[in-house]
Amino acid sequence: MDVCKIHENASKCSTSTMECFMVLSTQAQKISIATLCGLFGTLCVFENSLVLYLIFSSPGTRRKPSYLFISSLALADILASIIFVCSFVNFHVFNETNFSKEIYLLQLGGVNTSFSASLSSLLLTALDRYISISRPSEYKVLMTWKRAWVALGVLWVACATVASLPLLGWNCCTLNSTCSELFPFVDDNYLSSWISLITVLLGCIVYAYAHVLWKAHQHAAYMEKHQKQNARMRMDVMLAKTLVMVLAVLVLCWSPVLVLMIYSIFGRLSNHLRKVFAFCSTLCLLNSMVNPIIYALRSKELYSSLRMLFARFRRQLKASEESPEGDSTHKSSVIETVCEDTRVT
Question: SUPFAM superfamilies, per this entry (predicted)?
Answer without folding.
Answer: Family A G protein-coupled receptor-like
